[in-house]
Structures are given as structure tokens and as C-alpha cells.
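Hi there, hope your week has been kind to you so far. Thanks so much in advance, here it is:
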Amino acid sequence: MRTTVNTARAVFRRFVTDIDHLPAARVFVGLAIPGLVLVAIGRTDLLIYAVFGSFTGMYGFAEAPRQRLTHQCAAAVLLVGAVGAGILLGRLHTPPAVLVSAVAVFAALASPVTDRLGLRPEGPFFGIFAFGAIAMVADTQRQPLLALLICAGTAVLCIAVGYRESARKVRRGTASAAPIRCRPHRRGIDSTTHAARYALAISVSGGIGLLLGVGHANWAMAGAVVPLAAATARDRMTRGVHRVVGTFLGLLVAAPLLMPGPSPAILGLAIIALLYPTELFMARHYAVALGFFTPLIMAMTELAEPTDPLTMLTERGLDTVIGVAVGSAVALLIRDPAPHTDDMADDDQRYHRAAHALEIARVRTAAADARDDG
């Protein structure tokens, strides 16, 4: 028995270390507070809006207080703006083809902005996903203004939690107040090319989704943009594979969660709980993170617009394969105009090394303080 436990611990540590728990806890708290309130008052239909607002906390990993504040504020504008646009188009009963075009335009405009700001996680994926997902369910929401306020309020809470945590580490001397310096992800013509990739991938995958049925469009578009965030062609293919494998792992988790038809309160609590392991593994192993992220997304969609779980599970798997295939093909078709993507990948590696070094220093200092106190 002890050997089995030790083996499980070794496997777990391959994917995640002690320094990943604090950012995961930070993101979890940002959703848990509004999420538990919504569950308590029986408004789980609004939980999807809190979830998208809580994604603000995923930005600014291990950054200095002012740098994290800047990046998380920018992420909040992206996410809340995307949710607001989705609500507007959903309430106007926008034709599906127009909706796909609107998401493509949003992606083309947001991509160079996120590149220029150096936001991490890279690219406008969460904004694109929020736009499409909310547009699909907003017409069933009785109080759209309240829904938008919940999204914005959750985003503000995440910013406050992130700033307080990073400022506390600086005061205690376990982190530096100096920002992590790195170049924007892309420059000039390369950023324009990358925006074109997003627009084309979303248009094609969304069009295929519309041919299969309106409900397919959003998940197909989300699957298409995932491979495009990586810096190199090889990394884009790898990320696409992770998306497919991780999604199907998540479907195995989602099936026993959704098929019995649990109460909205149970689904709401499951959504809140699933966000912690999602963020815990996100930076280390994308496929494993998706094993938790997929049932989270499906559960919140079910609460916002109930449907047949088996149909939703089947469609999610099919749409992911379609989307990733389209995104990967676009990544191969539209090449980078200049041979500097390796430099960008090296820059990303420097960023993550610096961020992890700050967190390692924090953990070691905290451990030393604990020994001294003992």
C-alpha cells in the first residue's frame, strides 16, 4: 500500500510542484466566493458569468504587484468585454453566421492587443471562448445586466486577491517588486499574420459547426484557436494533440457527473471545485488540466442552458476534433513571415524560468522562517 502511495506521489510531482499551489488557490478563491453565494441563493444559472470573470486570476503568474495588476486589469477588460458582447448578440438573436463573423473579428482585433501587452496565458483564447459561449446562452438569461455585473465583480475580486497576495510577498521579502522583463510575444507583420490565423481558423471551424448545427459552432471555434497560441509550429501541433487528448479525458470525467442529472447545487459546487486542479496543472501539463476544465465548462453550460447530457458529450468530442484539425491546418498553411519564432519561444522560457524562480525563493524562505520559528 505504501509503495502504491509513493508511486502516485511521484507521478503527481512530475506534473506539479509546490509552487503551483498558490496560484491555483488564488484563482480558486476568486471563484469560490461569488460561486458559493450564487449556489446558496439558488442562482446557479449565473455561475457561467462568474466563471468567465474568475479567469482574470489566471493571468500574472508570479509577477510583481504592479505588473500583475496591469496585466490582470487588461485581462479583465478583455473578458468582461467579451461577455458583454456575447450578451448583446445573444439578446439580439443575432443570426449564427453573423455571430461567427463577429467572433472572428473580435479575435483578429484582440490578438495583436494581447501580444503587445504580453499577457500570459498567451493570446485571446479565454476572451474568444467567453464571447462565443455567452452568445449561445444569453437569450435564456432573464437578467442580462445582473449577469454582466457578476462577471465584472468577480474579475475585480480576482484582481484584488492577486494584488494583495503579490504585495504581501514583497513586504515579507519573499518576492521582488521588480517586474519580469520580456518582449511582447510578436511584433509588426508577425502579429498581423497571427491575427489572420485566428480569424481564418474561427471562420472555417465556425462555418463547419453551423453546417452541423448551431450548437456546434462555439466549441468548434474554441478548439480551433487553441493550437494557435503557441510560438512555434511544433508547439502548435503539440498543443492541438493535448487539446484532443485532454478533452476526451475530461469527457470521461464529465459523463458520470452529468448523466445522473444531479441537482443544480451539486453541479455548482463541482464547478467551483474543478477550477483548482484546472489551474494547478495548466502551466505544467495542458492535457491533464483539460481533464478538469472540460467537465467544468460542460457543467456550467448545462446550468445556463440545460440540454441532453449524452448529446452534449458527443457533440463536444466531435467539435473538438473538428476545431483542432482546422486550427492545426491553418497554423501550417499560414507560415510565420520572419524566422524569429524561436526567439519568442526562448523569451517565453525566460519568463517562466524567472517566474518560477521567484516562487521557489518564496517557498524556500517560508520554509526557513518556519524552521526558525520552530
